[in-house]
Task: structure prediction
Amino acid sequence: MLNTQQRINALVDLTTLIKEVDKDQIFELAKNKNGFFIPEFSGLALSNVLDWNDKRTLQDWAKDVPEENLKPKKVGLILAGNIPLVGWHDLLTVFISGNIAVYKPSTNDEVLIDWLVKNLISVCPEAKDYFIKSENMKGIDAIIATGSSSSALHFHYYFKQIPRLIRGSKSSLGLLYGFENQAELELLADDIFLYFGLGCRNVSKILVPEDYDFDTLFKATEKYKSLIDNHKFQNNAIYHQSIFLMNGDTFLHNDILMIRPNDSLYSPISVLNYQEYKNLEHAKEIIESHKPDLQCLLSHKGQLMGSIPFGSAQKPDIEQYADGVNTLEFLLSLA
Result:
């Protein structure tokens, strides 16, 4: 088995290899499997996960990982597939901990996940011992599973006899003070539209001061107007607009985005919910009510305590864990 430094070196070598190979074909295969995985977004996701493979970053992250894991555990991974390579962080964390990943990729993201594992093994053949692709979770010592809130309840029950880290549905929220300019709102547009808004880190709702003028926000979203050419996104937009019109719902829209008053944190694809607040204390009360379902909170330059700046939602650091639960600590506790 590999020691921790050897696993770090393998990840650094993986980045070197991936930067050199032609990725057009694999991106096209991913798009054929899932129409939302356009090459632009697959490339962005790949670049983001490879940024984690800086040697110093990995060494700092793995500082508490024992150099030798003499009794590696088999850790089941039921991976999400809503955006490209969303499950890679779990695979990476199991690998860096010295445990063995028994993983079931989502069919939506299987192409890219399998390709990245294959390339890691190609630069470090010994890494093959750390990855077992499986349709079932038999013989595992622990489980990390990601799915909907309803499937999370099922996972908790089904795997109740072993250590488990279960994640359900989450989404993200943006707080607008009202003074944000178009440049900053274009960063917010990234948080809304990257990956077609399908990630738990995508902003699905904004809080705005009373009588907020949405004109500048609509102008800021025009940078993503090409997304409407994607037939899956277009079909969703047409469908939801038709439903809103039939129901007589209030909403604002341009070619690519519908903004509607709605208290829910969750919104359909091509739709952004908004809720007005009276003052900052009122806004904080609304945020607190969403805490159980909140993945990211965003505000002007991360000014609000506990928030991150606009434009950073889909660029998480290696230690920004899903649901705020430290996956590496969970894995190290298995020893």
Notes: The radius of gyration is 21 Å. DSSP finds twelve helices and twelve strands in the chain.
